[in-house]
UniProtKB/TrEMBL annotation:
SUPFAM superfamilies: Aquaporin-like (SSF81338)
Species, as recorded: Georgenia ruanii
Biological classification of the source: Bacteria, Bacillati, Actinomycetota, Actinomycetes, Micrococcales
Protein name: Aquaporin
Gene Ontology terms, MF aspect: channel activity
Major subcellular location class: membrane
InterPro entries according to UniProt: Aquaporin-like, Aquaporin_transptr, MIP, MIP_CS
Length: 267
């Protein structure tokens, strides 16, 4: 007999390379398929719509009902909605629902930059549509759920709060999406749970937005733009900081597991 039989390690390496190559080819085909991209964008519009409908709607209904909703319920509802959307739509689009999350995934190299404009537009469209429904249904009750600096707090305090809260949120999302962490149900629980916990202590300061789309949509519909810049600058800065810390803790991104979590795997 000539030659040596392939060693188990060599066969394993060859199988891994083959599987990775096939996954990359499938991913490349998927990226050029317009139907897949439309499903992603529609999922982002729909997911962000329901998130803002609940997050802003809690403030609106609370104001319209004379306080029947209450602060704890208004804080808990968006976190629960995020859990539902991640479980329902995460496999389609990654369920970003938030420009800060989209930026974080892109900076982490888990999400292609060419997709960023479409996702940002979809998130803003979903948020604005939700605010429009609230305006048509309840008028200007609760200022259509706009976010604002709390009484007794300064703009600087609100800016720092939004930055820190979003730093934690994006850090949680990136961590839950990495190959070393649990994905799927546990990711939904981690992200939704963080949103609830952050809101419980920080909502009196800044309404704990952590999401430029959530703040921009109601502001555009209500025409209330006071301090709106901090709800864009704070979360985006927090996302950048979270990516930097993720790099220090786990090295560079771009792995297949995180990329799938960030982009979904529509069929």
């Amino acid at each position: 007999m000539s030659g040596n039989p392939a060693r188990p390690n060599d066969r394993d390496d060859a199988l891994r390379h083959l599987a990775l190559s096939q996954a990359q080819q499938a991913q490349a085909r998927e990226f050029t398929e317009p139907g897949h991209e439309l499903r992603r964008l529609f999922a982002e519009v729909l997911g962000t719509f329901f998130l803002v409908l609940v997050a802003a709607g809690a403030k609106v209904v609370d104001a319209a009902s004379g306080g029947a909703v209450g602060r704890v319920a208004a804080i808990t509802a968006p976190g629960l909605m995020v859990m539902v959307v991640i479980l329902f739509m995460g496999a389609t689009s990654g369920a970003h629902l938030n420009p800060a999350v989209t930026l974080g995934f892109a900076l982490r190299r888990d999400f292609p930059w060419r997709r960023v404009p479409g996702y940002l537009a979809a998130e803003l469209l979903g948020a604005t549509a939700a605010a429009g429904v609230l305006r048509l249904t309840f008028g200007l009750a609760g200022d259509v759920g706009t976010t604002s600096v709390g009484h007794g707090f300064t703009v600087t305090q609100a800016l720092v709060t939004e930055t820190l809260l979003t730093f934690g949120l994006v850090g949680t999302v990136l961590g839950a999406s990495s190959g070393a962490q649990n994905i799927g149900t546990f990711s939904a629980i981690a992200v939704g749970g963080y949103i609830v916990l952050a809101g419980l202590w920080a909502s009196p300061v800044s309404d704990a937005s952590m999401n430029p789309a959530r703040s921009l949509g109601p502001a555009l519909v209500a025409g209330r733009f006071a301090d709106l810049w901090l709800y864009v600058a704070g979360p985006l800065l927090g996302a950048v900081l979270a990516v930097g810390v993720a790099h220090l803790l786990r090295g560079p991104g771009g792995g297949p597991t995180a990329s799938e979590a960030a982009q979904g795997r529509p069929r």
